[in-house]
Amino acid sequence: MPRQSPVKKSAGPNGKPQLPTEAELMKMPEGEYMNPTQLAFFKDRLQRMKEELLANADVTSEHLRESDTHPDPADRATVEEAAHVLLELAPVDHYAHFALGRCLEKQGRADEAVGHYRLASFFRPQSRDYRQALAKLQSQHAAQ
What are the structural domains of the chain? Predict the structure, then answer.
């Protein structure tokens, strides 16, 4: 039976157990594949990647807020693409749903826009702007 390497117990500068480097990990024998040390290494790496993705999602969301008006169709397409990317990273981002709804509405894609306005309102029910945009589009759609 292969020997299991325990997670290194010495604390690093942040107080957490010190994990091996990627080079040290690669030098471990094949019999120690996914031992507790390696599991801790990958758990830490995935956590850092998640934090980076969420930080990037916040930045993208902030860019969407800053560019609230998009009269040029090319700009709307860019915002639509950014909103889709953001929603892949953070599917519950209310403003990304709202921005995507606005882009779709301006492109004449009302049915798709209504869905994103609904999601924006669902994720942030206290937003009067989201409710108003949804109600306006639904009333226009019903009048047709």
Answer: 33-143 (1.25.40.10)
